[in-house]
Amino acid sequence: MNPVAKLLIIGGIVMIVAGVLWAVGGKFLNLGRLPGDIAVEKGNFKVYFPIVTCIIISVVLSLIMYIIRWFTK
Length: 73
Hints:
- InterPro entries: DUF2905 (IPR021320).
- 66% of the residues lie in helices and 14% in strands.
- By secondary structure, the protein is an alpha+beta fold.
């Protein structure tokens, strides 16, 4: 199979899984409002910095990519 086609198929599957997890997981996981995320509200001004959420997502995605690379060797 062509490597580009394989990459597109894998990318599509990953996007479908991410979409399902986003839709279902949003009800059960409190991502975006974790302790350590910074929220500033003053009057009509709101700023939100999801620092801890970004770190957790980065670690999870790094582990997934590591596992995928490990299985494709």
